[in-house]
C-alpha cells in the first residue's frame, strides 16, 4: 500500500522541496509514497481568489475562510477517504515519535497548512481536523511543519531506511534521547573514543549507552524521564 500525502497550501511550489531529495526523494521516485500539493486558492469563487477575511470581533491579521478550505478538503479527500486530516498549528498537540509511528503504516494523510492568524474554528470542527504542532514557536505558515512531519513519517516506511534497526535506536524511540556516537579516527584532537565502545563486550556497551542516554535526557529533557525505569 502506498502512503498518499495530500498537502493543502497557498504555496504548492514549496513541495516536494527537501522531500524530493535523499531517502524521501528516492522513495518518492520508487512509488513507496506519493505527494500532491493542492492550491487552496483554486477553490475560492471570487475573481481575486480570496482565501481569508478579517477576524470576527476585531483584531490584527486575517483568518483563513471556512468555506474555501472546506471545498479544498472535500475535493482532496471526499467522503470515505480513510486518511486522517491534520492541521499544522502551533496550538496543536506536540508531534511525537509515537504519533509518527501511528501514521506511517496508514493510508497517508491530508495536511492543511495554515497561514495568517489561523483557520476558522468552524472548519476545524466541521472537518474534524487534528491540530499538530512541531514545537513551541511560530512559523510564517504550516508548510515547513508539514515538511517536517512528512520527513519523519516517510523514513519509517518499509524499505526507505537501508537498516531498519537504526530507526529503533534513535532519540524518543525508547522515551530517551539517543546516546553519543563515535567513529574513526580513534583519537581526535586529544579526545579518544571511550574504551568501553572498543572493548567488544556488548553487554557493557549496551549498559553504557543506556546510562549515557539517561544522563543526556536528565540534563536536557527531564520531562521524558518520568515514565522511564532507570538503569542500574
TrEMBL record:
Subcellular location: Cytoplasm
Chief location of this protein within or outside the cell: cytoplasm
Residues annotated for S-adenosyl-L-methionine binding in this entry: 114, 134-139
Transferase found in the keyword field: yes
Limits of the tRNA methyltransferase TRMD/TRM10-type domain: 4-225
Enzyme Commission number(s): 2.1.1.228
Catalytic activity: guanosine(37) in tRNA + S-adenosyl-L-methionine = N(1)-methylguanosine(37) in tRNA + S-adenosyl-L-homocysteine + H(+)
A Gene Ontology molecular function term of the record: tRNA (guanine(37)-N1)-methyltransferase activity
Pfam families per UniProt: tRNA_m1G_MT
Keywords: Cytoplasm, Methyltransferase, S-adenosyl-L-methionine, Transferase, tRNA processing
Compositionally biased tracts (Basic and acidic residues): 211-223
GO biological process: methylation
Cytoplasm keyword on record: yes
Disordered, as annotated region: 211-232
Transmembrane segments: none
Family matches, as SUPFAM superfamilies: alpha/beta knot
NCBIfam families registered for this protein in UniProt: PRK00026.1, trmD
Family: Belongs to the RNA methyltransferase TrmD family.
Biological function: Specifically methylates guanosine-37 in various tRNAs.
Subunit structure: Homodimer.
Protein name: tRNA (guanine-N(1)-)-methyltransferase
